[in-house]
């Protein structure tokens, strides 16, 4: 009876400690990681749009140069 009660109390203390650790340590850390990940996704999309705009401008410049070369019959 005493051994069973001791095991039950130990189990209760371990479970309570684990729950407290999850609530007070892991959850705030997870929340911060989630916020940082969202910020990283937004930054990635911003960089992707910038690169895409640059490539479009480069293509326009190349097309203009090709049309100029065709006008003077180089190509």
TrEMBL record:
This is Mitochondrial phosphate carrier protein. The chain crosses the membrane at residues 12-30. It comes from Periconia macrospinosa. Keywords: Membrane, Transmembrane, Transmembrane helix.
